[in-house]
Specification:
Length: 261
């Protein structure tokens, strides 16, 4: 192992030891389930130093150990997770801080994501191909519906999801309330792919029009009532036009939006 202490210099320090440290920092981010990586280019830059400080703090290591640079002993300690009892206690105290670090780093890259419905009480039953083509998000009466990501509005019908000549959607009889709002995603983020159609069945009181672009979080309308106050959220790749049918299991998207938005 290199005996150099890594410091920000001009021109920057370069070499395999720097690249090794960048890998160690990235491994630590991975251990914390943070979906962000420092560029492993073997150049010790200001960004490397900032990430070093974040990772040390997140581990519970006193940042004054960083004064003067990243000594080889410090790198070994981080790599082998040889933390003192005091550092372990601080590590436990800093779990909220690590959650905020995660939010900060992941927000830097990703397009905005918003929850689908202002408040979901349960998401009963789930997706069952041929039987129920979406997930029912059970919510308070008149809950607000939000665009999960930047999208184009491709379909708004106050009635007609099943009523006006449309096929009944699997899992729901034609007699129930049948407004619908459908979006086409304009970005790829998490499990949502650009071009996916995201449909809200039982959507009422639409506030958007076909052709309009909406940003994540923009209000689309309100949940309607069909047996219970809920929306039927469905996803397809765009292969069924605007018929309003789910051909993909929306579970991952529902959870992703709930966690991120
Ligand atoms: Zn449903």
């Amino acid at each position: 192992m290199s005996t150099r202490t890594l410091q920000v210099q001009s021109p920057p320090m370069t070499g395999g030891d720097v690249e090794g440290w960048e890998r160690d920092l990235n491994a630590q981010l991975g251990d914390w389930s943070i979906d962000y990586r420092l560029t492993e280019d073997g150049r010790y830059t200001v960004e490397d130093r900032a990430m070093t400080a974040s990772v040390l703090y997140g581990l519970g290591i006193a940042v004054d150990e960083l004064t003067g640079g990243v000594a080889p002993e410090l790198r070994t300690k981080v790599r082998n997770k040889r933390l003192s009892a005091e550092e372990r206690a601080r590590y436990d105290e800093r779990s909220d801080w690590r959650a905020r670090l995660r939010a900060r780093l992941e927000a830097a890259d990703d397009p905005a994501v918003h929850r689908l419905v202002s408040r979901v009480l349960s998401d009963d039953w789930g997706y069952h191909p041929g039987v129920h083509d979406g997930i029912d998000l059970i919510c308070p009466l008149d809950a607000l519906l939000h665009a999960p990501v930047r999208s184009r509005v491709i379909d708004v019908r106050a009635a007609g999801w099943w009523g006006l000549g449309a096929q009944p959607s699997p899992g729901h009889p034609v007699s129930e309330g049948d407004g619908i709002i459908q979006l086409e995603a304009l970005v790829t983020v998490g499990p949502i792919r650009e071009g996916f159609h995201l449909g809200f069945g039982h959507a009422e009181h639409a506030r958007v029009e076909v052709g309009q672009t909406v940003d994540a979080g923009e209000i689309l309308g309100r949940a309607g009532f069909a047996n219970a106050s809920h929306v039927h959220f469905m996803v397809n790749r765009g292969e069924v036009g605007t018929r309003g049918v789910g051909t993909l299991d929306p579970r991952e998207i529902v959870d992703f939006c709930a966690e991120r938005g």
